[in-house]
């Protein structure tokens, strides 16, 4: 079971519709067009389109599976027992004095450019159940980061 926000769920549904209704028909048309060109054994366009079709079908199956097991979280029912899924966290890196803001989300919603941090990431794992004012040490690939939690909200 995968918990996610309504926004993340809706985005995943839209991505699936795009793949099924736009991308897959486009690839099927490309396969038909390449097939009309004759000998399939040496037809590069045909083989490339078939590979693209296989890749798309894999992505479609993956997204269908995620949606099948997805559970949308009702923000109003989330407790205030520290940082958890859908918490918005303002942090300060103590070593560099840089500030950052993240929202803890499911792995399928994560996007660092948008400030959405996967709950399975090392930073999010270190922050779980912590409160504003706490200092945590996080082992990351480049070493250890010391982060101060400035504020937590939903």
Overall description:
- 40% of the residues lie in helices and 26% in strands.
- It is an alpha/beta fold and 154 residues long.
- It has 2 domains: 2-72, Helix Hairpins (Orthogonal Bundle), CATH 1.10.287.180; 77-153, Roll (Chitinase A, domain 3), CATH 3.10.50.30.
- The radius of gyration is 22 Å and the shape is elongated.
Give the N-to-C terminal Cα separation: 22 Å
Helix content: 40-55%
Topology as a string of helices (H) and strands (E):
EHHEEEEHEE
CATH architecture of the largest domain: Roll
- CATH topology title of the largest domain: Chitinase A, domain 3
The biggest beta sheet, please? 5 strands, mixed
* CATH homologous superfamily grouping of the largest domain: Transcription elongation factor, GreA/GreB, C-terminal domain
**Sequence of strands across the biggest β-sheet:** 5-4-3-7-6
Globally, the shape reads elongated
Low-pLDDT windows of residues? none
Count the beta strands: 7
Number of helices: 3
Total discrete domains: 2
Structural class: alpha/beta
Q: Class of the largest domain, according to the CATH hierarchy?
A: Alpha Beta
Mean pLDDT across all residues, rounded? 90
Q: Oligomerization state of this entry?
A: single chain
């Amino acid at each position: 079971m995968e918990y996610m926000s309504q926004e993340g769920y809706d985005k995943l549904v839209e991505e699936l519709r795009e793949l099924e209704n736009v991308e897959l028909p486009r690839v099927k048309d490309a396969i038909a067009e390449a097939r009309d060109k004759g000998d399939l054994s040496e037809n590069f366009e045909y083989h490339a389109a078939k590979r693209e079709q296989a890749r798309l079908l894999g992505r479609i199956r993956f997204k269908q599976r995620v949606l099948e097991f997805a559970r949308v979280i009702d923000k109003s029912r989330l407790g205030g027992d520290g940082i958890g899924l859908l918490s918005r966290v303002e942090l300060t890196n103590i070593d560099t004095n840089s500030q950052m803001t993240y929202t803890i989300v499911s792995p399928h919603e994560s996007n660092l450019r948008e400030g959405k941090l996967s709950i399975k990431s090392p930073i999010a794992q270190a922050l779980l159940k912590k409160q504003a004012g706490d200092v945590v040490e996080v082992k990351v690939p480049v070493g250890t980061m010391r982060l101060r939690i400035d504020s937590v909200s939903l």
